[in-house]
Amino acid sequence: MTQPNVKAYLRASIKKQDEVAKDRINIFVESLATKATSWYSDNISGTTADRPELERLLTDSHEGDLIVVESLDRLTGLVIVTEKPFN
């Protein structure tokens, strides 16, 4: 079985948040017995919709790629509520 091409996205307004998110993503990806091959990071507030690195990630991605974010709200800036938490 082929390992997926793992791409990680970070969005935080301060560097410390980025470091924590990167650690969490690495732990998750390592639990899949793989590692992130590409990292994309926007260090901006969630109140702006301008996310050049997210746009680049989406442009660079292909069918079969695995995109990993620390939390879904990192993509939108909105709090996402799910009935079942993701592990």
Please give a structural write-up.
With 87 residues, this protein is α/β, with parallel strands linked by helices. Helix content is 34%, strand content 17%. It has helices at 15-31, 52-60, 73-76; strands spanning 6-11, 38-42, 66-69. Strands 2-1-3 form a 3-stranded parallel sheet, sandwiched between helices. Helix 1 links the parallel strand 1 (6-11) and strand 2 (38-42). The longest helix is centred in the first third of the chain and has 17 residues, at 15-31. The chain starts with 5 loop residues before the first strand and ends in an 11-residue tail after the last helix.
Features:
87 residues, alpha/beta, three-stranded parallel beta sheet, 3 helices, 3 strands, 34% helix, 17% strand, globular
Layout of helices and strands, plus pairs?
Layout: E1 6-11, H1 15-31, E2 38-42, H2 52-60, E3 66-69, H3 73-76
Parallel strand pairs: 1-2, 1-3
- So what's the overall shape? globular
Radius of gyration: 13 Å
The tally of strands reads: 3
Segments where pLDDT lies below 50 for 5+ residues?
A: none
Largest sheet: 3 strands, parallel
How does the helix and strand content classify structurally? alpha/beta
What portion of residues belong to β-strands? 15-25%
Alpha-carbon distance between the termini? 23 Å
Structural domain count: 1
Helix share, percent: 25-40%
